[in-house]
Amino acid sequence: MKLKDAIRYYELTGCDVFDDFKKQNQYIRYLSYDFDLPNDFTEVIEKLSDNLLILWADSHNIDDYLPTTEELVNMYLSGIPKPENSKEDKTIEQLEVIEAPSRFRKSKSDNKTLDLIISIVNSEMDLQQFYELETELVIDIMNEVAARREKEAKKRKRKGR
Q1: Contacts for 58-61: CB closer than 8 Å, 24+ residues apart
Q2: Residue 37 and residue 91: Cα distance in Å, rounded?
Q3: Is residue 4 within 8 Å of 131, Cβ to Cβ?
Q4: Of 6, 40, 44, 36, nearest to 136 (Cα)?
Q5: Beta partners for 2?
Q6: pLDDT, tens digit only, all 161 positions of the chain
Q7: By three-state DSSP, how is residue 22 classified?
Q8: 124 dihedral zone (left: phi>0; alpha: psi -120 to 50; beta)
Q9: 84 exposed, middle or buried (CB, 10 Å; 0-12, 13-18, 19+)?
Q10: pTM score, two decimals?
Q11: Cα separation of 67 and 73, whole Å?
């Protein structure tokens, strides 16, 4: 998803697209493992597609036609392909433990879109240069900038000794 679309999604719906997508995947995983489904299963599954339709309708004329859920997902949720992981990484992913949903556990949700915008503003970078880029790429760039700044700070500390 492009950064501008993620921002607009947040402005229109008040929800973070990353959290909505993560929660939907978690509920689908519950369904595939035959866990007891939470009471809000239907709302969570439909929420992402409904919000994507709101995002699409914001910039298009809805008199012509309405796209299907598959078309919306293909338009907005395409990711950047990552290089294949090594065999060690695949075994770690396969060993991932899936927990059944707990009615007593409180979930902590961070707004990743807002955190990303704050980190760009705090680093005194121009938000406009990232506006058309995919969010995964912007996150990778921000992580690389932070790592380089950290490395430079360590070098300065060593030289100061």
Answers
A1: 58/8, 58/12
A2: 28
A3: yes
A4: 6
A5: 134
A6: 888 998 999 999 998 988 898 888 888 888 888 888 888 889 988 999 999 999 999 988 888 788 998 899 888 887 656 666 655 555 545 555 666 555 555 556 677 778 888 888 777 778 888 888 888 888 888 888 888 889 999 998 888 76
A7: helix
A8: left
A9: exposed
A10: 0.68
A11: 10
pLDDT of residue 133: 85
- Tokens 């990353």 — which residue? 18
Distance CA 11, CA 5 (A): 10
- Which positions ≥6 away from 139 have C-beta within 8 Å? 116
Which amino acid is located at 116 in the chain?
Answer: L
Give the tokens for residue 30.
């519950």
Where helices occur in the chain by DSSP H, the ranges are 3-13, 17-32, 41-59, 69-76, 87-94, 112-122, 135-160
121 in Cβ contact with 113 (< 8 Å): no
